[in-house]
Amino acid sequence: MTSSTPFISLEEGNTPLIRSTSLEKNVRVGALFFKFEGMNPTGSFKDRGMVVAIAKAKEEGKEVVMCASTGNTSASAAAYARRAGLSCIVLIPQGKIALGKLSQALMHGARVLAVRGNFDDALRIVRFITTHYPVALVNSINPYRIEGQKTAAFEVVEWLSGVPNVLALPVGNAGNITAYWKGFKELLVRGKVSSLPRMFGFQAQGACPIVLGRPVEHPQTVATAIRIGNPASWKGAVQARDESGGLIDAVSDEDILLAQRMLAEEEGLFVEPASAASLAGVLKKSREGVFKGQEIVVCVLTGHGLKDPDIAVRQNEGKIEEVEPEEEKVVELLGLRGRRR
């Protein structure tokens, strides 16, 4: 940022680090925390980097910004572009974006193009357009996005007054794991911390190119935010994994949805499916005996559950009970008969 960079903000960042009250014992670690990024203005971690990317685009005289998105990036780009008085164009994979996210982009006035292909097709087109025309690219390959997102690492350290042993997070386009690692390393260089965490990244089994070591042509997973077959920040994710002595592994859709329900039912945290991949992965590693029982583990929860309400409703079909609009009928249904005060 420079003195010429315009100030734009929706009061992003400063999201809570919430200690587990229930699931900590399932993981068998010293302490388990959740960095709840769903508390950002548009409901996901994307706001941290997007505010910087949009501000720099405006500083550079751009009038239009553009991104490819599985959902959260489009919502964030549209909101911050509108805040800055810029136009926003979003390319999404047709039929593969949660309605909660699509509605945000539309309401913020973005022009939305549905590409008859996947996210990787959309990003390829965005790269071409922004290279050859006066349009700013605001995907995470924009370095300003990484600069903004690294602030979450600063907040984790500030909250804990130290560094966790493990930081676990979902991996889709891999910009977030790249940004966290950059943030932690900067703190080490500046003498703010004396150690670094191990970075644990988790992809969905149907969309795990880094785990497989090759792009996935047709990625499939219920976790739409990480349904990406060829991550733009692949090298950064591998660097974070290798330099930290961490890992990148895959978790099943079943484990992701189970972790989503566990967070909601046992911790009171409603997150979208992709966010739960971090907990699903930590639970998997716990079963494999990776943890020794004393570690401080932070799971990054990247987006709010209202981003993808359809998935939540489908998981709970049949739980809504119908009843006649009569007091006694409700009393009977609830099993309260005979217990009146």
Question: Which tags fit this structure?
Answer:
four-stranded parallel beta sheet; 14 helices
Brief synopsis:
The protein is α/β, with parallel strands linked by helices. The chain has helices at residues 24-27, 46-59, 72-84, 99-107, 119-132, 143-149, 151-160, 175-189, 209-212, 234-244, 253-267, 277-287, 309-315, 327-333, and strands at residues 17-19, 31-36, 64-68, 87-93, 111-115, 136-137, 166-170, 198-204, 247-251, 296-301. The protein contains 14 helices and 10 strands.
Give the proportion of residues in helices. Answer: 40-55%
Largest sheet: 6 strands, mixed
Describe the global form: globular
Secondary-structure element order, as H and E? EHEHEHEHEHEHHEHEHHEHHEHH
How much beta, percentage-wise?
Answer: 5-15%
* Strand segment count: 10
- CA(first)-CA(last) distance: 65 Å
Q: Could you name the ranges where pLDDT drops below 50 across 5 or more consecutive residues?
A: none
Averaged pLDDT, please? Answer: 95
